[in-house]
Amino acid sequence: MATSIIELKEITKQYDDQLAVDHLSLSIKKGEIFGLLGPNGAGKSTTILMMLGLSEPTSGTVHVCGLNPTRHPLGVKQKVGYLPDDVGFYQHMTGLENLMYTAALNGMSREAAYKRAMHVLDQVGLVDAATKKNGKYSRGMRQRLGLADVLMKKPDVIILDEPTLGIDPEGIRELLQLIRHLNEQDGITVLLSSHQLHQVQQICDRVGIFVKGKLLAEGNIESLAKQLFFEDTFVVNVFADPIDDSLIQSIHDIHGVNRVEMNHSTMDVYCQEDVTPDIARTIIQHDRALYHINKKNYGLDEIYHRYFEGRELNEATK
Ligand code: ADP
To answer: Among 203, 209, 214, which residue's Cα sits nearest to residue 228?
Structure first.
């Protein structure tokens, strides 16, 4: 079993009369990309601040790379790179100078800082813009420079708060690819918070759905779909001819099929496991023409809407 690199046990954060995080337990494994997903005000940033030792939990325990961030904030800072949602760089300095400046503040020699800075600028695709003033960078470039800054110290974990906010689609695609690449190439564990679902879905190994300080569900997309859609995890859409009662009954009798619904001349088969081959076989055995068969998996958007618009949310936040 992979070891946990971030371990939250029953943490709460109370701000005056506002309970920002409510008994949150979460375990993030070494080497995974985890997405903390939820609307504004859910408590994502507060949770991140507690992981970094920048805010102390009201109760519960936090361990990051085996350290308690409240007691060992510097130890955590050495191992964890944090990219806030709006990175501040000196506008009048170039990308390279900005990196060299933070490296100097962290006690790195000029020579080592230059070497490392050029390497990370290359990793994030900013070598050509290294000597361009930061004020002339696009937001997407500033985010990549932020990532470069975080990578300077060779972190074990990077934590990104809403990294894709305000970036154009092409910039988002590049940034997400870059995060995935860093994860695969250097084995860096990544935690990112977002309310932009389909983007997160592209790169996260697991996501947690976070609403009003509570984690309502977590897992990979398939297991989330199972948790939220209960038994109807798969829907298989079929166009065969003719579709009659005897065919519908035979498909209904397949183990794992919950119900069959006619939708104009096609049929939707709701099932708890992927029985696409059994459905195809049954149609052929009935000597029917099979024109189309397509399995639909629930995506994160549907999962998310189900949660945020469905009764689960109302119940969980009562
Ligand atoms: P998210 O990052 O998911 O948007 P936050 O963690 O920023 O959510 O906020 C969670 C809740 O805690 C919000 O209701 C917010 O108003 C409140 N909150 C956050 N920081 C503070 C603070 N320093 N003082 C008081 N309330 C805060």
So the answer is: 209
- The residue to mutate among 11, 12, 13, 15, having the most atoms of ligand 1 within 8 angstroms of its beta carbon, is 15
Tell me: do 218 and 237 sit in the same domain: no
Nearest CA residue ID for atom 15, ligand 1: 41
Cβ 155 under 6 angstroms from ligand 1: no
Enclosing domain of residue 132: 4-225
pTM summary value: 0.77
Q: What is the model's pLDDT at position 229?
A: 62
Q: How do 266-271 and 257-263 pair as beta strands?
A: antiparallel
What is the tens place of the pLDDT at every residue in 63-102? 999 999 999 999 999 999 999 987 789 999 999 999 999 9
State which of 200, 225, 250 marks the end of a domain. 225
pLDDT at 39 over 90: no
Q: How far is CA 238 from the centre of its chain?
A: 32
